[in-house]
Specification:
By secondary structure, the chain is an alpha+beta fold. The chain folds into two domains: about 130 residues, no CATH class; about 120 residues, no CATH class. The chain is built from seven helices and ten strands. The two termini are about 35 Å apart. The relative contact order is 0.13.
Length: about 280
């Protein structure tokens, strides 16, 4: 995500503003000085295929108010939130990012944060790329909440990262990172995949799994070695060469399988429901 320079200015936020204590010097008395917070907007432009509100719309997420705007001319669709700068900058960025990750998981669609802006005014940013489809009467599902477990939050973040990256090998590796978040060692990842493969129901994944079952004695080991390791490492074979179409075609054939495995893990092992959960 590309940050823009902050243009925040000092504005008093209220009587609960934190105070800074000046140490007592040899000839000075103790002083208590107020810290002046800077009220800013954090604006993050969004590239997504998820339906987006046709007019500026406020939503409540994790107890906070977020404002969503549609694309307008050469300005991208965005989501923004007001916060005290710099004290709450990182927490605000995380909350907006968690919102996008939960939204991405709920709809199984990309939701890429592009430009990040901090400003005292709700500026716009972006370019001339097509915006998301617009919907009237936009609302977020009542079940859209931030998971409490660290591994659950990480898994949704990794899922959004994989679904949103426009690069086949990195998308493939991203779904493997979802599996890795719950299974540390390679043997555990291979064993889990072999156990989960019969539970997959996605039609594209099933077609590829049938082909792999006919040609590979250990499909989990194949996906780990010729997929995950071939993308992540380059010292020895197998290696995915991004200039070789045969490598990319094979990886593209395997992609629906690892995506389906990552989705199965999040939904069934972690118990995080999405739009089509029963």
């Amino acid at each position: 995500m590309k940050p823009k320079r902050s243009t925040c200015s000092h504005q008093q936020t209220g009587k609960n503003t934190p105070k800074i204590h000046i140490p007592v010097g040899p000839t000075t008395e103790k002083q208590v000085l107020p810290i002046t917070d800077m009220l800013c907007w954090m604006i993050i432009t969004v590239e997504t295929t998820i339906g987006w509100p046709a007019i500026e719309t406020s939503v409540t997420f994790a107890g906070e108010t977020l404002l969503l705007r549609p694309q307008d001319g050469d300005s991208s669709a965005d989501v923004r939130m007001q916060y005290a700068h710099p004290q709450n900058e990182h927490a605000t960025f995380e909350l907006i990012s968690r919102f996008l990750s939960c939204l991405s998981w709920w709809y199984h669609m990309p939701a890429r944060g592009d430009i990040r802006i901090s400003s005292t005014a709700p500026m716009r940013g972006g370019g001339l790329r097509p915006g998301p489809p617009l919907v009237a009467n936009f609302s977020i599902p009542s079940d859209l909440t931030i998971p409490t477990a660290v591994v659950d939050r990480l898994s949704l973040a990794l899922y959004r990262e994989a679904a949103s990256v426009n690069h086949l090998p990195f998308e493939f590796l991203g779904y493997f990172k979802v599996i890795n978040a719950s299974h540390n060692k390679s043997k555990d990842q291979i064993a889990w995949m072999n156990q989960a493969l019969p539970q997959i129901s996605d039609s594209k994944a099933l077609s590829r799994i049938a082909n792999l079952n006919a040609n590979e004695p250990n499909v989990g080991k194949y996906l780990y070695g010729s997929g995950r390791c071939a993308v992540a490492h380059a010292f020895q074979a197998p290696v995915i060469d991004p200039d070789l179409s045969v490598d990319l075609y094979r990886l593209g054939d395997d992609l629906p399988v690892v995506r389906a495995l990552a989705e199965y893990l999040i939904e069934h092992d972690l118990g995080i429901k999405w739009n089509a959960s029963r």
